[in-house]
Amino acid sequence: RELTGEVEFENVDFGYNPDKIVLHDINMYAKPGQKIAFVGSTGAGKTTITNLINRFYDIQDGKIRYDNINIGKIRKPDLRRSLGIVLQDTHLFTGTVMDNIRYGKLDATDEECIKAAKLANAHDFIKRLPDGYNTVLTGDGSNLSQGQRQLLAIARAAVADPPALILDEATSSIDTRTEAMVSRGMDALMEGRTSFVIAHRLSTVKDADCIMVMEQGRIIERGTHDQLIDMKGRYYQLYTG
Ligand code: GTP
Ligand code: MG
Questions:
Q1: Are the beta carbons of 178 and 97 closer than 8 angstroms?
Q2: Which of 84-104 are b and which e, b meaning 16 or more Cβ less than 10 Å from the residue's Cβ?
């Protein structure tokens, strides 16, 4: 059955090591198509939550549901694979640009890969590479800029066409023009999918349906940008500095 991208956490406790709990009593609900953002200081648990959405680990207590299916304690690789991840460090392998995009869906046609690259805003730079889509990348992607690697990661996720996405926004310095391209590609990719975004830029957070403010493994505030500003709490502090 197709997943809609509905994700729910109910009273989730988690520790990488069972006797050191790092997430406490996490409750959240994402309707299909919503954008959920996580903000908070380093070590607050943002990446850990996204690791759990991906079911990389078993949880100690509580429930994680996709479309009402509890996947909190049983590993369901099929479900897990249906989520798309765009991480900061994109894993590229030695092979053509086309094959690196196709990795998102192994039976995708060339046309589907090109369509995905266009949606991701990656098509233009790929066309300018020496051999276009047939350009061979080095395994570490070192013959591409960081922004270009991110555009490829977006294209790879787009070809997989998942109902839900996890985006770990890069903090590292890419130039403003490339950043704008990456940001437009991300927006196109998120359209119509549930998105969980670890956001480092205010611009990314502002239009989220719900912003989760995390501290020491707990969600301490949640709401839209305007609601959180009105609350004059932690979020207000973070962004008015
Ligand atoms: P930044 O990425 O630095 O902004 O932090 P974050 O909010 O993503 O925090 P993260 O979820 O990575 O960490 C939450 C807590 O879990 C911290 O106390 C980490 O030290 C701990 N932690 C994170 N990853 C691991 C891991 O792989 N193993 C163990 N044992 N602890 C981890
Ligand atoms: Mg992190």
A1: no
A2: bbbebebebeeebbbbbbbbb
What value does the mean pLDDT take over residues 203-216? 92
> If you take atom 18 of ligand 1, which residue's CA is the nearest one?
43
Is 46 touching ligand 1 by the criterion CB < 6 Å?
yes
Higher pLDDT, 210 or 175: 210
d(C-alpha 109, C-alpha 132), whole Å: 16
Q: How far is the CA of 42 from the centre of ligand 2 (A)?
A: 7
Higher pLDDT, 181 or 80: 181
Per-residue b or e along 197-236, where b marks 16 or more CB atoms closer than 10 Å to that residue's CB:
bbbeeeebbeebebbbbbeebebebbbbbeebeeeeebbe
| 8 Å CB contact between 133 and 97 | yes
Report CA-CA distances (Å) from 6 to 105, 166, 241.
22, 13, 34
Ligand 1: does its nearest atom lie under 6 Å from the Cβ of 224? no
Q: Is the pLDDT of residue 155 over 90?
A: yes
CA of 78 to the centre of ligand 2 (A): 25
CA distance 82 to 161: 9
Q: Atom 31 of ligand 1 has which residue's CA nearest to it?
A: 16
Beta strands in 31-152 (DSSP E): 35-40, 61-66, 69-70, 83-86, 95-96, 136-137
Residue nearest to atom 17 of ligand 1 (CA): 43
Whether the Cβ atoms of residue 79 and residue 66 lie closer than 8 Å to each other = yes
Q: Is 163 in the pocket of ligand 1 (CB under 6 A)?
A: no
